[in-house]
Amino acid sequence: MRLPEFSFHEPLTLDQAFATIKKNNGNARFLAGGTDLVPLMKFGLETPSMIVSLKKIEGLKGIAEDNGYAMIGALTTLREIISSTVISGKLPALSEAAMAVAAPPVWNVATLGGNIRQQTRCVYYNQSRAWRLEKEPCFKAGGNVCHAVPRGKKCFSVYCGDIAPALIALDAAATISGMAGPAEVRLIDLFSNDGLSPFTLEKNTIITGIKIPVPGAASRSGYAKLRVRSAIDYPLVSAAASVALDKDSIITGVKLALSAVGPAPVAIDLNGVLVGVRIDTADFTALKDVLPKKTQIADNLALPGSYRRKMLSVIAKKAIMKAAERAAEKETI
Amino acid sequence: MTRPSKQIISLNVNGDDYELAVRPNRTLLEVLREDLMLTGTKEGCEDGSCGTCTVLLDGAPVRSCMLLAVDVAGRHVVTIEGLASDNELHPVQKAFVEYGAIQCGYCSPGMILTAKALLDTNPNPTEEEIKLAISGNLCRCTGYNKIVSAIKIAGENIAGVSSHE
Ligand SMILES: Cc1cc2nc3c(=O)[nH]c(=O)nc-3n(C[C@H](O)[C@H](O)[C@H](O)COP(=O)(O)OP(=O)(O)OC[C@H]3O[C@@H](n4cnc5c(N)ncnc54)[C@H](O)[C@@H]3O)c2cc1C
Ligand code: SF4
Ligand code: FES
Ligand code: FES
Q: Which superfamily does B7-82 belong to?
């Protein structure tokens, strides 16, 4: 599979990046690690006329703790995130989510910003040209049908990012820079929940970094992922949780976010379920009713939707228990 | 659209400096195999899933089928051809041959380079660490056990040699 032709640009500043796109009036894509974009281009699913690499732009890389926040540049690689003791110690869900992405060689090039901004996926869409020719084009390919939901009127392609749910459970915000200037957006607000165009960001907007409030010792986080193989595979359902405990191991707060459950990651409002109970006596059965109602799971990933729906509460419980155990450890130190 | 022109890039491959004229849409894998005739690096899935195209970029394993050659200008690349020195196989290569960790050999260049990168930073890895390191490299033949043992033994051999130096 050869890549289609495009021009390649390496701006040194954000302003240069925007000016290059404007001047060339092109259908541009930003390049970070390329591990999402390049395969899509090989399949003919992305056909930019210009690629604008973000790698030479200063100030988009690195991890720092400042004034109660962890600040992570969007071009920071997953390897750097995984190696950071600040992140593994205080924001373990982020570490775990990064480690759950693809496989170790991919961590060496894949970036945080690229992970967040990855395209939605579907077994009927993420295929070679030859494979797709056998079927009528679906909504996402510019056609008028959905092969996953036969009478569906829209695209249910799935947001399969591992890192966004962790960032949502950690209350993160993205700093962005666009033609209209810089802004800060809550992570959850980056997503449109539309499989055809999954992001709310204006075209050609650059995510410059992520800002995460560093939690106090009583609150910790965890990440759990359902996949067929323990490496390489995208999530089939995943959950991130932040749990706060008091000194008697009573839950005082839970934040839960899910991925691979529809066109966007979902922040789950548990409406007080689990709060006020001791973690070792907590009853998770309510999750079985609550979670499937908040998701739009279709038959369009490697395992049937019915199975993924049943696994929601199992994976969510796993993430919550990981977080709670970590918070309890902190309480006893 | 006018055809995007070739760009001149420099690349150090296996210790040799090259100046190459490449179009932006060529992957590092294509340039290694087709321009430099270094066909030891294999092409498998072409979409990032299998790991057989693994090379070392500044010492770290990466999938060359997903990297644009113009995007790695100025960097150091090691391919499987760069491992043996003076007709002497690298300890990982030796262990793969001696302990039968190769059947068809298609995954071996990627597997061996990934193992070399692991042993460079951690000469005495646990079985779990080896399995994690090679978890992105698919082998459709051997079932992995012999590969894991060969990497373990290669590590011991490297550590043994350096402790006697
Ligand atoms: C075999 C395989 C398995 C994978 N498994 C997983 C998995 O399990 N979980 C998972 O989450 N991902 C997975 N991925 C997808 C991908 O590797 C990761 O999401 C990776 O983190 C993407 O980062 P990148 O820097 O390579 O992105 P790129 O490919 O460079 O970019 C992805 C998209 O984001 C845009 N972009 C990049 N950076 C920015 C920025 N700073 N601002 C605005 N837009 C930007 C690009 O224009 C592009 O559209 C897998 C990929 C492969 C090939
Ligand atoms: S969910 Fe339907 S429309 Fe969307 S990519 Fe899959 S088949 Fe196409
Ligand atoms: S050919 Fe590159 S990962 Fe398979
Ligand atoms: S030896 Fe045949 S694929 Fe690994």
A: Beta-grasp domain (3.10.20.30)
Please answer yes or no on whether B25 and A43 come within 8 Å at the CB atom.
Answer: no
Please state the pTM of the whole predicted model: 0.97
- We report the CATH number of the domain holding residue A10 as 3.30.43.10
Element (H, E) at B95: helix B91-98
What's the confidence (pLDDT) of residue A24? Answer: 81
> Nearest ligand to the C-alpha of residue B44?
3
Distance CA A82, CA A76 (A): 10
pLDDT of B162 reads 64
User: By percentage, how much of chain A surpasses pLDDT 70?
Assistant: 99
Structure ipTM: 0.95
> Which segments of chain B have a pLDDT < 50?
165
Contacts of A195 (CB under 8 A, 6+ apart): A120, A122, A139, A140, A154, A155, A156, A157, A158, A263
CATH number of B91-159: 1.10.150.120
What pLDDT score was predicted for residue A333? 47
Domain extent for A5: 1-57
Domain count for chain A, please give it: 2
Residue A34 contacts B where some CB pair is shorter than 8 Å: yes
- Does the beta-carbon distance from B23 to A39 stay under 8 Å? no
Last residue of a domain, one of A20, A40, A57: A57
Give A199's strand partners: A191
Residue-averaged pLDDT of chain A: 95
